[in-house]
Amino acid sequence: MPTVIDDQVLYIERTISAPPEQVFDAWVNPDMLVQWWGPEGMSIPQHKLDVRVGGAWETTMRNAEGGEVFVSGVYKAIEHPNRLVFTWAWRQPDGSRGEETEITVTFEAVEGGTKMMLDQRAFSEVGNRDNHRMGWESSFNCLDRLFE
Fold first, then answer.
1. pLDDT band at residue 130 using 50, 70 and 90 as cut-offs
2. Per-residue b/e over 122-138, b at no fewer than 16 CB within 10 Å?
3. Cα(45)–Cα(2) distance, integer angstroms
4. Could you give the CA distance from residue 138 to residue 140 in angstroms, rounded to a whole number?
5. pLDDT tens-digit map of 50-89
6. Smallest Cα–Cα separation from 104: which of 119, 114, 89?
7. Across-strand partners of 12?
8. Is the per-residue pLDDT at 25 higher than 60?
9. What is the pLDDT of residue 6?
10. Maximum pairwise Cα distance, the chain
11. I need a surface site. Which of 1, 46, 62, 133 has the fewest CB within 10 A?
């Protein structure tokens, strides 16, 4: 269940029915990422992952009506299979990058799979944090199905 630490921080824990190595790979392997990334009902028609510290990533998410949103960032830490840190910013209508947040995802072996913990910060507005909460929860439903 999501936990609100404060107005600027989103924290979500989810147990995924797969070992940490596989769950971590779902975040950095393009063939796996496109199967779950984005809220339910979205597809990933374009993506680029330069999975190394300092490497850039970007994805295009397309909804069922054909509307697209673009998000990108930079990898800050890659510690397979325990921890992944990267930045996140939506592309704005004028082509600029919007508010940038930093995401840390940790992976811990537990009975039945992996406890995955996402920490995203620092949001300037509660509404942005809450929109991301809904998006991540939906995306993690897709990630659950990947390992069913």
1. very high
2. ebeeeebbeebbebbee
3. 29
4. 5
5. 999 999 999 999 999 999 999 999 999 999 999 999 999 9
6. 119
7. 2, 118
8. yes
9. 79
10. 47
11. 1
